[in-house]
């Protein structure tokens, strides 16, 4: 297997494979100083969900309270008091106008160093998520598919998936799989995402079409598994068949114990992956929460029909 030293860019592979270590200076940015936590309690409230998931009294998986965040470089505020509760077995969709803060929100969940938390709290599986390093979040089952998957020249897709898989297993104290065993493990999974086998031997995402990149993201999810799968615009650039394949693979992973948090602009994805809740984000806050009917109104009448302002 090719040896590969990952760079520090924060992307699907470096995050989900837990192969990277952030420098100490960057780690500090993802922590929330105590004084700011106190100040956050004064933040304006926005809707949160509290119902139970499929099958009754589902456990809390993720609880976001009054979360605020700024861009690390410029200190420009982006998130301004986000509240969200995700229970096991639930599928949550976040919609909202371009620039409303959706991607920032999910990137903050995985500890992206571009953002600094300025207030609020995030609890994941009963733990303070903001005290966890990004790689600890990945090991704890938080998977993220990024909006723009990166290319990694010089590293074959199967080698990278094998390394990501083994990195996760090492952290969990489980035995690693060699290349041949791993091929046996991954080959049947290709069918789940309807992906051509030759894409395994190509360099990661290099020259992949937009749709192939998205299928590859979902393949990674299928390979690694997740308790909370975060999918940022997984439907963008997909033709209708690819959308169906991707949705089928995601649905195939859903159990009463795991959850999905997905960002989308389109009703069509929600018709394939049925959401428990749809949230509308506006100006860095969730301003409305409801069911699929919200997306139907949105599709017909646009954001003016459901705007919080
Ligand atoms: N790293 C960054 N540097 C500078 N500006 C940023 C950065 N990250 C986010 N922003 C800005 O914060 C705002 C929210 O961006 P974000 O990507 O979260 O929006 P979004 O709701 O996901 O939009 P879209 O629907 O277009 O993907 C935008 O104005 C964006 O330009």
Provide a brief overview of the structure:
The chain has 309 residues and is α/β, with parallel strands linked by helices. 36% of the residues lie in helices and 24% in strands. α10 (240-253) links the parallel β9 (228-232) and β10 (259-263).
Residues in β-strands, percent: 15-25%
The CATH top-level class label: Alpha Beta
- State Rg: 19 Å
Structural class: alpha/beta
Detail the poorly predicted runs: 1-8, 19-55
Q: Shape from CA axes?
A: globular
CATH topology: Rossmann fold
Query: How many separate structural domains?
Result: 1
Strand order of the largest sheet: 6-9-10-3-11-12
* Main β-sheet description: 6 strands, mixed
Count of distinct strands: 12
Small molecules bound: adenosine-5'-triphosphate
> What's the end-to-end separation, in Å?
55 Å
Describe this structure in words.
It is a single chain. The chain has helices spanning 12-16, 24-29, 34-40, 102-109, 134-139, 157-171, 179-192, 198-201, 210-224, 240-253, 267-272, 292-301, and strands at residues 60-71, 77-87, 91-96, 115-124, 127-128, 142-145, 152-156, 203-204, 228-232, 259-263, 277-282, 285-290. With 309 residues, the chain is of the alpha/beta class. It has a single domain (12-305), classed as P-loop containing nucleotide triphosphate hydrolases (Rossmann fold), CATH 3.40.50.300. The strands form 3 sheets. A 6-stranded mixed sheet has the order 6-9-10-3-11-12, with helices on both faces. α9 runs parallel beside α10. The chain starts with 11 loop residues before the first helix and ends in an 8-residue tail after the last helix. Bound molecules: adenosine-5'-triphosphate (ATP). Adenosine-5'-triphosphate is lined by residues 71, 78, 96, 98-104, 114. Keywords: ATP-binding, Nucleotide-binding.
């Amino acid at each position: 297997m090719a040896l590969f030293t990952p760079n520090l860019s924060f992307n699907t592979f470096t995050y989900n494979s837990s192969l990277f270590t952030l420098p100490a200076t960057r780690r500090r940015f993802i922590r929330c100083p105590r004084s700011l936590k106190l100040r956050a309690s004064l933040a304006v409230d926005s809707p949160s969900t509290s119902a139970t998931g499929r099958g009754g009294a589902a456990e809390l998986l993720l609880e976001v309270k009054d979360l605020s965040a700024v861009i690390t470089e410029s200190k420009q505020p982006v998130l301004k008091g986000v509240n969200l509760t995700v229970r096991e077995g639930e599928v949550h969709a976040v919609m909202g106008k371009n620039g409303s803060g959706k991607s920032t929100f999910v990137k903050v969940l995985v500890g992206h160093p571009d953002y600094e938390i300025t207030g609020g709290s995030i609890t994941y599986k009963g733990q303070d998520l903001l005290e966890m390093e990004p790689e600890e979040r990945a090991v704890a089952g938080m998977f993220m598919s990024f909006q723009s998957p990166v290319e990694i020249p010089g590293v074959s897709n199967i080698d990278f998936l094998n390394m990501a898989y083994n990195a996760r297993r090492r952290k969990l104290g489980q035995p690693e799989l060699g290349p041949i065993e791993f091929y046996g493990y991954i080959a049947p999974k290709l069918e789940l995402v309807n992906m051509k086998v030759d894409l395994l031997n190509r360099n990661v995402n290099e020259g992949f079409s937009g749709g192939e990149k998205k299928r590859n993201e979902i393949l990674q999810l299928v390979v690694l598994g997740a308790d909370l799968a975060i999918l940022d615009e997984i439907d963008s650039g997909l033709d209708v068949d690819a959308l169906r394949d991707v949705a089928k693979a995601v649905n195939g992973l859903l159990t009463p114990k795991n959850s999905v948090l997905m960002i989308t602009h389109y009703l069509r994805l929600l018709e394939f992956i049925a959401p428990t809740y749809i949230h509308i984000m506006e100006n860095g806050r969730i301003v409305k929460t409801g069911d699929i009917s919200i997306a139907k109104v949105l599709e017909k009448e646009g954001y003016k029909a459901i705007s919080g302002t």
